[in-house]
């Protein structure tokens, strides 16, 4: 076993899990909305990036456009479907009452609604752009070591994944917005009475989650096949990571990215991709079965016990 | 998505069951609780009404609703995916079928009758395929049926086809071995495709081979065939890796290939996720030549991916739209004239096209659309002029002798023909010794039962 191979495969796998999950984790953790259309949000980011880059824009600029497009799309979905505020605004002026109950903390309802959004997006993109669009090349070439080589771009992605996690941690712990957002999710009534515009907090959080999904799509557009159904390939990793991570979303995503990425890389390296996937899913089953609050739940228990002593 | 669609199908079935249970329980309840009688009667009536509607959908009332078009027109059932997972592959199949039908209708149809088509979109969903196949046979009374991209779809609908003794054309290149008196397999089999490209690769690059294959029925059987062919050409399979269809990340696979350092790789990858392999392989600097039977001719990766992702990939196929013959040029022009926005003409599309033509010629020869007569005519072994060249049907085993070519994709993604050979389907005719004109059967044979090399459990 070549240690460089193992390390690079781990970095690659860690990046994929973290970037797949982080947008979902923010929306789920902060709003109690399970976005089953998450994969399709990623697909929108990838389409935005690929289409703009194909039109001649530099790759980084195209990626920024991809993120913005997904964020704007997320904003529209939040206003019309998740909170229904835009529709209620119209209804209150025409019917004199609101017609839509927000999907916050309605797990099953939010799943059905966002799954439907995902289906519409997949087929909608297929109808508008066809079954396939011209694909991008992976930039940055490869590094050589011994008889092996690895795509530099895939390794850059793991650095980006770490930066995203650090950046989000800073936003949610060290900014006024972060404090308000966390107050909103912990106790919306009290937050409102203290002057927090909770409605705005929800919208902003959803837009951030959508932008992160868009970023994932933008980053993977040059390395994966951009097709209407590509979202499904992110969804499994995303859900497994969030569930294994547990209630503290950012820390949890980091931990599960680390654990699942390591397991996946190790078993893939030893026995091939098939056993890598099996080992990763078995680990997820074990964690869910033995630690009902996920990895962060375990960390909290250990911490509480120490404090207790 | 596909799984989701399946579970929806199950919900539908459950609803039907509930309706039935309601009907049964109604009789018991009625005597006990007369007050609820009206409501229950209403329920029962709705249940009966729903039952009728469902029966209409599944087509069990064919005698009343269908069958009127028999004398005025020839009806062809063409079930090809235009949405869902297989839309990319299914759309050209649908297009080429429509082109064939239009060309015949301009010349006066088949037997001087206009060709009508039954072409709903099965949406890459196997339960929908079953429903539509029943509808096509029982309600639309199709004279011949073309249906399905994946082998899983074919195996889902083949029992329905056999039970109804329906003439059926399956046109995808596939793992081989289907020996069915009602089914005609128009695509090249794995043995034909690999049998064209594998010996060429051994000749050109050396005899040490690494196989990567999609981890499901088709990929496993194709890898079996690579082993059989390696034995026949004295090549050495250094290692093989089976990759789940959900995998999108090939870093470790690329490292494993580099560690083994073969003369060439046989890449039997399938589906959109696996398409990511090519870009990742090239950006990782893996420049070992690769042979394949699955990419380019079906999903036109050489046109969708930016060069040089597919550089030095060699494929054994019966058709790619780049074939430089006049006949193919003229076919291409007709296709793109009818479908100016179409992306690519894949191998399967051409199989649909020539098999509709072959069917029409057989119908003209027997002077009717009687399915048993046409099957008999086809089994006598017919020739057909296809865009790939003049080819013939091996009547006794319902497969084609194809004009197989080895195609090469260069760094600029130009396609060139490197070798060409007529290859018959030999597995059923020679190894199994099947003969559908002598013995009626509806089996699928697998290489593992006939070759030691293919039997991995030994």
What does this structure look like?
The complex is a heterodimer of chains A (309) and B (458). Chain A has helices spanning 3-31, 38-54, 59-82, 85-94, 107-129, 152-174, 176-186, 188-193, 198-220, 232-245, 249-271, 273-290, 294-308; strands at 142-145, 148-151. Chain A has 309 residues and is an all-alpha fold. Chain A has a single domain (3-137, 147-308), classed as Orthogonal Bundle (ABC transporter involved in vitamin B12 uptake, BtuC). In chain A, helix 1 crosses helix 10, helix 2 runs parallel beside helix 5 and helix 3 runs antiparallel to helix 9 (198-220). The mean pLDDT of chain A is 86. Chain B contains 15 helices and 16 strands. In chain B, 46% of the residues lie in helices and 19% in strands. Residues 1-70 of chain B have low confidence and may be disordered. Chain B is an alpha/beta fold and 458 residues long. In chain B, helix 5 (126-139) runs parallel beside helix 6 (151-163), helix 7 (190-205) crosses helix 8 and helix 13 (347-366) crosses helix 14 (371-379). In chain B, the strands form three sheets. In chain B, strands 7, 8, 9, 10, 11, 12, 13, 14 and 15 form a nine-stranded mixed β-sheet that branches. A five-stranded parallel β-sheet of chain B has the order 2-1-3-4-6, sandwiched between helices. Chain B folds into three domains: 2-57; 73-188 and 324-403 and 427-449, Rossmann fold (3-Layer(aba) Sandwich); 191-317, Rossmann fold (3-Layer(aba) Sandwich), CATH 3.40.50.2300. Chain B is globular and about 65 Å long. The interface between A and B is large, with 51 and 42 residues.
């Amino acid at each position: 076993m070549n240690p460089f191979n193992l390390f690079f495969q781990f970095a690659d796998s860690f990046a994929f899990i973290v970037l797949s999950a982080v947008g979902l984790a923010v929306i789920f953790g902060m709003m109690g909305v399970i976005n089953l259309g998450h994969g399709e949000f990623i697909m929108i980011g990838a389409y935005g990036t690929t289409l703009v880059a194909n039109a001649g824009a530099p790759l980084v600029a195209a990626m920024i456009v991809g993120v913005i497009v997904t964020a704007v799309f997320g904003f529209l979905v939040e206003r019309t479907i998740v909170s229904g505020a835009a529709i209620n605004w119209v209804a209150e002026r025409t019917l004199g009452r609101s017609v839509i109950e927000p999907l916050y903390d309605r797990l099953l309802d939010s799943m059905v609604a966002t799954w439907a959004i995902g289906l519409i997006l997949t087929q909608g993109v297929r109808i508008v752009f066809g079954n396939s669009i011209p694909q991008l090349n992976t930039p940055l070439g490869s590094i050589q070591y011994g008889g092996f080589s690895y795509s530099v771009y895939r390794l850059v992605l793991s650095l980006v994944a770490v930066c995203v996690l650090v950046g989000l941690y800073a936003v949610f712990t060290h900014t006024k917005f972060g404090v308000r957002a966390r107050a909103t999710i912990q106790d919306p009534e009290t937050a409102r009475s203290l002057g927090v515009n909770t409605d705005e907090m929800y919208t902003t959080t959803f837009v951030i989650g959508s932008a992160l999904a868009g970023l994932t799509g933008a980053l993977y557009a040059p390395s994966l096949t951009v097709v209407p159904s590509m979202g499904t390939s992110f969804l499994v990793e995303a859900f497994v990571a969030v569930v294994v991570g547990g209630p503290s979303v950012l820390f949890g995503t980091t931990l599960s990215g680390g654990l699942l990425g390591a397991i996946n890389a190790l078993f893939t390296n030893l026995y091939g991709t098939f056993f890598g996937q099996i080992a990763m899913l078995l680990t997820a089953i074990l964690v869910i079965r033995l630690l009902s609050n996920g990895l962060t739940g375990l960390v909290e228990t250990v911490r509480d016990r120490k404090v207790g002593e | 998505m596909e799984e989701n669609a399946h579970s929806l199908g199950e919900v539908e079935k459950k609803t039907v069951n509930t309706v039935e249970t309601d009907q049964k329980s109604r009789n018991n309840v009625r005597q006990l609780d007369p007050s609820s009688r009206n409501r229950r009667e209403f329920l029962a009536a709705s249940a009966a009404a729903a039952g009728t509607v469902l029966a209409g959908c599944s087509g069990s009332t064919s005698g009343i609703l269908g069958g009127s078009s028999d004398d005025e027109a020839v009806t062809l059932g063409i079930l090809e995916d235009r949405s869902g997972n297989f839309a990319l592959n299914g759309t050209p199949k649908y297009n080429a079928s429509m082109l064939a039908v239009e060309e015949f209708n301009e010349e006066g149809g088949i037997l001087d009758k206009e060709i009508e088509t039954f072409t709903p979109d099965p949406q890459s969903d196997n339960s929908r395929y079953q429903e539509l196949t029943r509808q096509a046979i029982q309600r639309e009374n199709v004279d011949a049926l073309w249906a399905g991209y994946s082998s899983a779809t074919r195996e889902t609908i083949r029992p329905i086809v056999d039970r109804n003794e329906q003439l059926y054309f399956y046109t995808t290149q596939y793992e081989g071995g289907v020996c069915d008196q009602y089914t005609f397999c128009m695509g090249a089999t794995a043995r034909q495709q690999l049998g064209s490209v594998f010996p060429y690769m051994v000749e050109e690059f050396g005899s040490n081979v690494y196989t990567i294959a999609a981890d499901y029925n088709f990929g496993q059987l194709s890898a079996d065939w690579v082993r059989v062919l390696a034995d026949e050409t004295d090549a050495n399979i250094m290692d093989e890796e089976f990759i789940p269809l959900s995998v999108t990340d090939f870093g470790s696979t690329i490292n494993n290939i580099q560690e083994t350092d073969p003369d060439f790789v046989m890449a039997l990858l399938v589906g959109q996720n696996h398409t990511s392999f090519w870009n990742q392989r090239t950006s990782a600097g893996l420049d070992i030549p690769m042979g394949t039977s699955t990419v380019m001719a079906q999903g036109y990766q050489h046109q969708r991916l930016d060069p040089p992702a597919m550089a030095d990939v060699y494929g054994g196929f019966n058709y790619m739209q780049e074939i430089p013959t006049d006949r193919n040029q003229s076919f291409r022009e007709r296709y793109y004239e009818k479908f100016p926005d179409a992306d690519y003409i894949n191998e399967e599309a051409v199989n649909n096209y020539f098999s509709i033509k072959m069917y029409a010629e057989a119908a003209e020869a027997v002077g009717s659309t009687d399915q048993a007569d046409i099957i008999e005519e086809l089994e006598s072994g017919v020739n057909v002029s296809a865009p790939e060249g003049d080819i013939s049907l091996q009547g006794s085993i319902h497969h084609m002798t194809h004009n197989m070519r080895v195609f090469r994709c260069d760094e600029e993604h130009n396609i060139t023909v490197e070798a060409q050979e007529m290859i018959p389907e030999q597995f059923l005719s020679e190894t199994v010794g099947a003969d559908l004109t002598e013995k009626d059967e509806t089996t699928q044979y697998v290489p593992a039962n006939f070759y030691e090399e293919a039997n991995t459990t030994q």
